[in-house]
Request: fold
Amino acid sequence: MRSFMHNMRGASVFPILLTVAGATALFLLPNFVESTYALHIMILIFISVIMGTGWNILGGYTGQYSVGHAAYFGIGAYTTLILMQYHQVAPWYGVWAGVVVAVAIALVVGSICFRLRGPYFVLASIAVAEIFRVTALNLRLTNGAEGILITDIPPFKIGNAVVTDFMSKVPFYYIGLVILIFAIIVTWMVQNSKLGYYFQAIREDQDAAHSLGINLTTYKNAALAISVVFTSMAGSLYGLYVGFIDPSTVLALDLSVHIVMICIIGGIGTIWGPAIGAVILVPFSEALRSNMIAQALIDSGIISENSRIGAFLKDQLSHAHVLIYGILLVIVILYMPDGILGFARKLLAKRRKEAA
Amino acid sequence: MAVFFQSLISGILIGGVYALIGIGLTIIFGVMRVINFAHGDLLMVGMYLTYFLFRLLHIDPFVSIIVTIPLMFLYGAFLQKFFINRVLDALPQNQILLTIGLGLVMSNTVMLAFTSDYRILTTAYSSSSLRLLGLSISVPLLISFTITLVITAVLYWFLYRTDTGQAIRATAQDRSAAQLMGINVKRMSIIAFGLGAALAGTAGALISPTYYIYPQVGSVFTLKAFVITVLGGMGSIVGATLGGVLIGVVESVGGVYVGSGWKDVVVFIVFLLVLLFKPSGLLGTSKD
Reply:
């Protein structure tokens, strides 16, 4: 039995089986779940996992901490939505147009900024994202601070058969799921390829990697390009799903931080880290945002609705959903610098050691 | 031409406050090599302190810095002792994320406590101005600039003339060498972060009569603080002083000639160019 579990080139079959089972369950989920709210949360989680997984290639595997990935999320979203709304280009082409534009811009930015290291690179990535935000705020093309509101998405047809008309949440769910699986597969391929080893060599020691003949700018740019493909797709999907984008949501510094946080909390440089981070962060912040936590505290009788604290929480807690991000971030950095996944692994290893 | 001089003078006046923000950040970076992403949020805390001292106790915002400075110093020392100190040897990116987290906690706690409403601190002289040689000079900006000058002078005296100040600068130059010379670097770090927080808080107090006060105001100033310190050279106190005034002028003049919407783009492009071609700052000599 044990040998069966470990045949395929040392990789155990069990995790693969588990992954396939999980993916199948996710594919079947909309058949059983009626609640649109649950689907909504799932779609938000998918978008977060996609952008986190994208960032993870650059930040986690290559060690280049970009805190400006909102730029590429926004570029993807804006390209797709502008093409659709003002030029009647169907979104399933627009998404790819977004990817092309975002990657092209990323390569220009990367060629300039990858000369910088450590904190200086972080600062430069923020500055670049801010330049895009302020530009979008001032251009007529992006409709400035008003943003872009989409009126309707054309139905997706193959031949004459309508595949979906995007009237419900289900098509977005499946699109998100497919991109997510694609992103996870790409991460897995990167992790186990020569390219991925180059990335990790750069992360561990740039100078050593360089002296072994790895062209730093080329491979950092390669990581950035892969990373931006998914970030941009996540942006397009977000724009189409929510139906409204403006600079303060899709190009904000907060979004860049959110992307990094998903990975840090889950565990950077791991395949499942961003997924775990998103599964923890997104529902929690949505629960706070939609006042579910305050309501639950009141319903459970812990706090009376008429008391001052109850009224205060009900009014204010939803505005402060980011507070939870801050607290989590501080705790994770201080106590679990390898993220939840790294922390769990350490615990497991410790237990095994004790058992042995 | 009058327009140019008018924007130049307002730029210099606001630049004094920017200098305070920049000096605080640069001291923290110099001593600990930590980029404090919560710097703007410290400024925001200073603004709220000033606001409530004014509303509840009717203390003039410029007088209230007597209370704000020590309080913010203690707050900064507390943050250093219990949070920042634990990540001094961690990866730079983890230090950055910790300060981002602390900033989020600060801004969202303030939002939870006082709502995200914009508050305005109106004093009798808030909108009054002096006329000098055909130029109008805003009174609150002039007072704040004068106070900035005094504080900067005291700070220079402290850092260059006192033992503690020199110990701080020694720690900034070479942490381990300073430790070998018998300097208590841990204490210096606490003082440095305290100073940084006090300066940010003071800057917040000084601009509160002329600026909107809201929980998210910090991020604007965090970004500005980075630009200022990078411009002057990370860790350079003189550089941060000049960088602050320079950014004040660029913003103010840029706002007139490029349009207020685009002025931030100009600032960030200047910032990127400096990062790329002169990462040691405009004044700095290359040193790693």
In short: Residues 1-32 of chain A form one domain. DSSP finds 17 helices and four strands in chain A. Chain A touches chain B through 41 residues (CB under 8 Å).
